[in-house]
């Protein structure tokens, strides 16, 4: 075990544990446990880390496996490994290239997904971009939403100003589709300008709506314009 707490830095290499506190940097390279809240400039987990408390950091990066039981407040948060966050996550810029599990809500400016994320609560950001997989138990709300359906994506409700869902095609995805759905699934999708492909929804509501390839929509409610492209299917449409 090598635990160092000098000049405001906390470093755990190997097997070790420490109390929380205020630090310039926190680095977990081995199997480390921190008991208590952490307030630091940078937090990095390259091994298997557990924080029994909240984390507040300007820069937060997960390369290994991290479990955090409290809330997270981070200016930037990137997960390239595996992150298990039991509480709410507040981050201006958040990127998921590995896998993330969030037991509460997500709030911030930007969320980019190239891996996989699960959010039990709501996800409220300004810009949402996904090229991976996501599951959101509540509302996905963003001013701009761009989703490329590389994998299974679902949210209970989706709301935004501009919502674009694009179907990605490849030999691998064609094989995957025979095993499981890779569509976007939602109960309600509501926005100003909506363009959908590869989407299954009960209600789509907005000003300008385009229903494209491989869509299965029960009801479309539109204010200004509505059209169907390709094999998109809509059971009923109503102009508001």
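Sequence proposed for the structure above (240 residues):
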């Amino acid at each position: 075990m090598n635990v160092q707490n000098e000049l405001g830095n906390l470093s755990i290499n190997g097997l070790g544990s420490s109390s929380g506190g205020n630090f310039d940097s926190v680095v977990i390279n081995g199997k480390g446990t921190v008991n208590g809240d952490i307030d630091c400039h940078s937090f990095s987990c390259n091994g298997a880390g557990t924080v029994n408390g909240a984390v507040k950091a300007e820069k937060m990066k997960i390369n290994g496996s991290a479990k955090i039981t409290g809330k997270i407040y981070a200016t930037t948060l990137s997960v390239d490994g595996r992150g298990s966050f039991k509480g709410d996550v507040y981050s201006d810029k958040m990127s998921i290239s590995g896998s993330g599990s969030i037991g509460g809500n997500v709030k911030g400016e930007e969320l980019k997904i190239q891996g996989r994320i699960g959010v039990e609560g709501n996800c409220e950001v300004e810009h949402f971009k996904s090229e991976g997989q996501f599951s959101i138990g509540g509302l996905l709300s963003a001013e701009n939403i761009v989703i490329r359906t590389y994998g299974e994506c679902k949210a209970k409700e989706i709301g935004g100003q501009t919502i674009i869902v694009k179907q990605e095609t490849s030999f691998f995805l064609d094989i995957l589709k025979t095993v499981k759905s890779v569509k976007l699934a939602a109960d309600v999708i509501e926005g100003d300008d909506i363009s959908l492909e590869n989407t299954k929804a009960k209600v789509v509501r907005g000003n300008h709506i385009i229903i494209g390839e491989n869509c299965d929509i029960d009801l479309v409610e539109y204010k200004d314009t509505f059209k169907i492209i390709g094999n998109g299917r809509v059971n009923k449409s109503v102009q508001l």
